[in-house]
Amino acid sequence: MNRKELDPGRSPRTQFGVQLRTSREQRGWTQDELAAEMGYTGSHVSAVETARKLPTLRFSTSSDRALGTGDKFERLWREMRNGALLDGFPEYVGYEGRATEIRLYDIGIMPGLLQTPEYARAVAESNVRREAITAEHADERVAFLAQRQAALVHLHPPMMFVVMDESCVRQCVGGPEVMASQLDRLVEFAARPTTMLQVAPFSIGERRCFRLPVNLLTLSDRSVISYSESQFQGHLDREPATVLPLLMTYHQLQAEALSQADSVAMINEIRKGLS
Fold first, then answer.
1. Whose CB among 33, 137, 193, 270 lies 3.0–4.6 Å from 29's, allowing a Cys bridge?
2. pTM for the structure as a whole
3. Domains in the chain, CATH or no CATH each
4. Distance CA 132, CA 33 (A)
């Protein structure tokens, strides 16, 4: 991409690149000189400036430190990261930490809030192997999940209701050792006084109410927020006319799912097969 093609309005990535190049040239530095200050190579800086490579959090904070720009590039990175998330998810996470009740339904992959670090790492690294994200972005994704989990550990944690499709506990992610530890985490989660864990077995067939992952948050004023997503699109909804029917459907799914005791028994049986 040549200089004339760098339009800052084209995307958050190009905006970052243009701002980086502008700040560098105001200093009178070459790409190699900036790279030396940051601990990167000149080719890496060039790739970010021309939007051929995504900046990471470390690159962004190093840019601010070297160029004396405060937190300018860190803020640009955070805006870009949020822009790369599915619609509604950054706002959803903001509500998540203030919820009094959290209801989750997932298919195929464990809900993020229940993932062990090793399981989360395995999921992130699979995306690296597909070249969907970089290794540094995988690190940031795992760290972000840990922050979400930590935000829910306090004196009065929210009630958490989790229904997961049987595929979540059957699909081996990260190998037997990682999966065994993940299943142990589920059993520990189910034993807490503020949680409920159920498995929706394959046998319920067409009675499975949801075809996509769904999250429901109840806030302190008893209002309910829903967040649902597909692979490429997310949707946050606060309208009672559409959210409350989802809550009713969730209750119907709970009625069809295995009891917590039977769910834990299934998980323990699968766990034995991984020993």
1. 33
2. 0.72
3. 3-84 (1.10.260.40), 89-113+156-272 (3.30.870.10)
4. 30
